[in-house]
Amino acid sequence: MSKKLAIIYILSIIALFVACASIGTPDGGPYDEDPPVFLQGTPAPNALHVADKKVVLNFDEYIKLQNAFEKVVISPPQKEMPEIKSSGKRITIQLNDSLIPNTTYSIDFNDAIVDNNEGNPLENFSYVFSTGNTVDTLGVSGTVLNAQDLEPIKGMLVGLYTAGDDSAFYKKSFERVSRTDSRGRFNIKGIAPGKYRIYALSDANNNFLFDQKSEKIAFSEQVIEPFATRAERADTIWRDSLTIDSIRFVPYTRLQPDDIVLRAFNEDFYMQSLLKYPRKEHSNFTLYFTAPNEKLPQIKGLNFDATDAFVLAANSRKDTLQYWIKDSAIYHMDTLAVSVTYDVLDTLGLFVPRCDTVLLTPRKSRARVLADEKEAFEKAEKEFLKKARKRKDYDEDNPPVYIPPTKELKIKSLNSSTMDVNANYVIEFAEPLLSIDTMAIHLARIVNDSTQVDMPFVFRQDENNIRRYVVYAEWRPEEQYEVKIDSATFHGLYGGTSFPFSEKVKFRSLDDYSVLHLNIPGTGNNAVVELLAAGGNPVASQRTENNRCSFYFIKPGKYYLRLLMDDNGNAVWDTGDYSKGLQSERVYYYPNMLELRALFEYSQDDWDINAPLEKQKPLEITKQKPDKERVKRNRNAERKFQ
């Protein structure tokens, strides 16, 4: 064998051994899927007559705490923040408050304890001890929902007071406390036998009592008496990640009530203040308030006479107020000094006047505006003379005089070329109108693509916008119409005049819509039903009549339903008042999505508003989603099939 062939032979043998050694890649063994295991603690679990304020917990592996401030709840609640530390396989809790005699203490970690490597959580871990002769073992649980939209509320305190002192919510800390998770669920542990009142609180200042009107609260009118029963629950035994081996029933102690639902709300208390006051143009300025106004503020001019000086445009809440200045001598001023007097609530909850002095200055000074107008005039005049010189009759000694065109008041159409059959024609102007010639407005129905038939109509200012106007008429499906407006029909507050305007619109066919009929027992004539788009925003509403309501002219699509029990008949949701024992108005959701198609008429007779409240709102439109599991289970079993 030649030397060259020997080398090739040796290299081939080496390559064969390397290939045989590379059949699999070491992966470090199976995944760690087990949570940390609690080994022992000082004091011991459920210890009695405890006097030491230091608690030490030991685990079988290295651990860490995640979001301890948010997740770890100590009951009774601690006024002075405890020190909670993790180091290696140990957690140390140093309580800074004095221990209360004859009291059960519980430290609820939720799922804050995880192993150091994989992050496997030790779920629902609690540690309990007592300063007295017994450990209290009762508990209650439930859900806290936002009263207005049934959103689960995460991180809200839920606590108990011994029944009998209805003022305790204002005066002292909770006796027992828990905190809601991402599903709005709470679980209060270590409760002694007795009768209690239950409350929820978004505790802004961490003192465990309701002492700020800005705090969201919830309360129940019912007295709660915790109790325990024996029960069984199904425990599924898995052979692998896909196959069930068996199901066994495991006895356990069920702590009740475990289905409490609290509806949380903010009381109608607003720290009223003037937020901002821009004056984008000389002609108008806007006042923005932090909350709705019961009545309009008083405006006083400090360097001008504000008597009858404005045209006011206010939104429905009266927290955004736009003032249009009528007198040119006033709006030409670069700085308007005004005092704004409005009502605010004092510390006793009484309305008192507050006066703010503000300076209203536009973006451009009057001199800058005049300079811009002069520049625009000179540019237009130069262009006019340039064109005039090209004419044969141009006389250099006697040139034509440039006359600026009439200031145009533009008409803005807010309509699409194809309109819904239940809509009306709407136009808008950049400024309030000074006068209208309704005889110069024309509406015609177009027949056979050419013939026009004049139509009666009503032209009216929009209730919520003084610059917007609506044409009301008997619109017909599949018909085309033309709106014509003659020149100089509208004159604006600042001298603008409208030019001729015309627009054609066509209304949709009835075949483009679906119809929805609802039967909702228990609502009578007292409910408002909202049809919600896929994102959860309302697109239409109807009041029930004899437990029924119907929606017509619905575009095909996916929808949801929300119902408001409108107790005072004002068609809006009203909040509660704890001092008056008044709950907020009740809200319900239809639990399923509705997919409506064109040319279909649907009837829903199965809406039970008395179904469990926490299960009503569809997850698709619930913004507060449950926290995802941080560790994927059964990864070892899954890997066997790869």
Overview of the molecule:
By secondary structure, the chain is mainly beta. It folds into four domains: 170 residues, Immunoglobulin-like; 87 residues, Immunoglobulin-like (Sandwich), CATH 2.60.40; 98 residues, Immunoglobulin-like (Sandwich); 99 residues, Immunoglobulin-like (Sandwich), CATH 2.60.40. It is built from six helices and 44 strands. Strands 27-36-34-30-31 form a five-stranded mixed β-sheet, with no helix packed on it. Strands 38, 39, 41, 42 and 43 form a five-stranded antiparallel β-sheet that branches. Strands 1-2-6-5 form a four-stranded antiparallel β-sheet, with no helix packed on it. β22 and β23 form a beta hairpin. The protein is elongated.
Query: Number of helical segments?
Result: 6
Radius of gyration computed on alpha carbons: 36 Å
| Beta-strand fraction estimate | 35-45%
User: Could you name the CATH topology of the largest domain?
Assistant: Immunoglobulin-like
Largest sheet: 5 strands, mixed
Shape: elongated
> At CATH's second level, what is the architecture of the largest domain?
Sandwich
Distance from N terminus to C terminus (CA atoms, Å) equals 46 Å
Secondary structure tally: strands:
44
Broad CATH class of the largest domain: Mainly Beta
Quick overview of this protein structure:
By secondary structure, the protein is mostly beta strands. Helices cover 9% and strands 39% of the residues. It folds into four domains: 38-207, Immunoglobulin-like; 274-360, Immunoglobulin-like (Sandwich); 412-509, Immunoglobulin-like; 513-611, Immunoglobulins (Immunoglobulin-like, Sandwich).
